[in-house]
Amino acid sequence: MVTRGGIVVATGALDTAGARAAAAAPAHRYVVVTDDHVGPLYADRVVASFGGGHTVSVLVMPHGEAAKTRATWARLTDEMLALGCGRDTTILALGGGVVGDLAGFVAATYMRGVPVVQVPTTLLAMIDAAIGGKTAVDTPAGKNLVGAFHPPAAVVADPSVLATLPPRELRAGIAEAIKHGVIADAAYFTRIASEMPALLAPGGTATAAMEALITGSIAIKSAVVAEDAREHGRRRILNFGHTIGHAIETATDFGILHGEAVAIGMAVECRLAELSGAAVCGITEQVCAALDRAGLPTLPPPGLDGPGLVRHTHSDKKVRAGAVEYALPHAIGEMAGADTGWTVPLPDAFVREALA
Fold first, then answer.
1. With bands split at pLDDT 50, 70 and 90, how would you rate the model's confidence at 83?
2. Is 2 in a helix, a strand, or coil?
3. Backbone CA torsion sign across 74, 76, 77, 82
């Protein structure tokens, strides 16, 4: 078992989620928000983990990024009102990043804010989405454009649930681990890349290497967030790969997984870093080699044109005074832009060239 600042990573932790939620955020009523894929697998276990004496309800939303909308937020809040939930309610977000983002946003806004406990069930959610308190919904204009900072009262991560995760989803989560190495820890990046075959092999989710990946990524992200909780400075480095990645998600109507889009975004933004002189030569090759070992894409899907993706970047939250700002690496483990607020504004022509 590994615990860190309200975050627990332990095999079997799912069966303690209720007790941990009751200890971290005592409430009159608990609401488990999950989706129609995860709910049938794990909701009963989470409800049972409360033991007797607690009122626990389960609300189910559709799975997938297409459900992370204001309409779903409205439906969930209406259902909570119908249940009679007051300000003495704690929400548990049981699922992947979509559930965590949306349930977290419900918690941030319901009666001006109630506690949320994140119970992530995907690798991406365990190492990234559940950590740091960003919550949001998507809009037709782009991803995560309506949201709030709302840190969880606790995070309960049980690596054993990854055994039911499809291989494609597992690879998508590893993309975020690769990102963490690039932005902050060269040794971690090298270790993840070298252990990739074992991590992706049958049974790889139950290995010590997988637990080390989870705890290592959590340590990196937690340290960055602790330094800059509301993304006014260094926390912006966590956006590496996400400006292009979000544009790809929007352009494909979320037909590509978030981790896959971030993988492509990292490859493109490494090329941007080299073209602009922000990075040392060869970083694109290093990062793409790691992404290849994970079976992740490094090129936009066929049919997406550079100018179209550039237009989508201008709907991103990182636009300032009409210019899109990018979090760019200088070298593996070191980000550029320390003297410019950890982002680098770039002209669209650079981006079109990197996408070419």
1. very high
2. strand
3. positive
Helix residue ranges per DSSP H, 160-241: 167-184, 186-194, 196-200, 208-227
Q: Which of 150, 234, 242, 318 is catalytic?
A: 242
In the set 231, 249, 274, 325, the catalytic residue is 231
- Amino acid (1-letter code) at residue 316: D
pLDDT tens digits for 131-154?
A: 999 999 999 988 999 999 999 999
Is 221 marked active-site? yes
**Does the active-site annotation cover 232?**
no
Please say if 258 is a catalytic residue.
Answer: yes
Establish whether 144 is a catalytic residue: no
- 112 is annotated as an active-site residue: yes
260 is a catalytic site residue: no
Residue 305's pLDDT band, with cuts at 50, 70 and 90, is confident
Residue 79: partners with Cβ closer than 8 Å, 6 or more residues away: 59
Tell me the two tokens of residue 220.
């990196």
242 is known as an active-site residue: yes
**CA separation for the pair 227, 323 (Å, rounded):** 26
Cα separation, 2 vs 121, in Å, equals 17
Q: Is the pTM of this model over 0.90?
A: yes
Measured between alpha carbons, how far is 55 from 36 in angstroms, rounded to an integer?
Answer: 21
